Amino acid sequence: WRLGGLNPQGAEYHPTLRFVASPAAAEGIVVCPTAKNGPVFAIASDRAGDLTDTDAVLWIREMNTPDVPSPIIDSGLVYLCRENGFMLVLDQKTGEEIYMERTHSHRHRASPVLAGGHLYLTARDGTISVLKAGRKFEMVAQNKMGESISASPVISDGTIYLRTFDALWAIR
């Protein structure tokens, strides 16, 4: 499918617009971030062709959206980590804002990861924020690596892998 009109020529045209974040998919929905604080689109996943201005667009979040981090969809919620450290949580079906809370004020470029009912967010200054997944904002922990991080964490078999600019960490 195709969704057009996201960066039309004219007064609103943004010459440096580029899409970095990957879409996220769950049953019946694909959540597509754009960039530069632009909109996030929720698209019905069973459609094909040009979906511009059709009912295949389930909802749109117009602003306060992520630039680089990819979304997560889980248990009826869409998690969007903004570059400025705010976690934005939306209802999957309606796009209604559940909450938007700051996790850490440093730049976030890495995508969040969900494991064991927790969201892991890494900030560029090496701070890792751990949030409990759900409709209520709850910071479980915040740890400082003491090294800069831009890569998303990877979690496998009870080990968290973190790639800093100087090392690869495996934490159990």
Structure, explained:
With 172 residues, the protein is mainly β. Helix content is 0%, strand content 41%. Strands 1-2-3-4 form a four-stranded antiparallel β-sheet, with no helix packed on it. The protein has a four-stranded antiparallel β-sheet with strand order 5-6-7-8, with no helix packed on it. A hairpin with a 6-residue loop joins strand 2 (29-33) and strand 3. It starts with 23 loop residues before the first strand and ends with a strand.
User: Which consecutive residue ranges, at least 5 long each, have pLDDT under 50?
Assistant: none
How big is the Rg?
Answer: 17 Å
Distance between the termini: 41 Å
User: What structural class is derived from the secondary structure elements?
Assistant: mainly beta
The count of strands amounts to 15
Topology order in helix (H) and strand (E) letters? EEEEEEEEEEEEEEE
Helix content: under 10%
Characteristic terms for this protein:
four-stranded antiparallel beta sheet, mainly beta, 172 residues, 15 strands
SSE inventory with pairings:
Blueprint: E1 24-26, E2 29-33, E3 40-44, E4 57-61, E5 72-74, E6 77-81, E7 86-91, E8 97-102, E9 113-115, E10 118-122, E11 127-132, E12 139-144, E13 154-156, E14 159-163, E15 168-171
Antiparallel strand pairs: 1-2, 2-3, 3-4, 5-6, 6-7, 7-8, 9-10, 10-11, 11-12, 13-14, 14-15
Compact overview of the structure:
The protein is mainly β and 172 residues long. It has strands spanning 24-26, 29-33, 40-44, 57-61, 72-74, 77-81, 86-91, 97-102, 113-115, 118-122, 127-132, 139-144, 154-156, 159-163, 168-171. It has no helices and 15 strands.
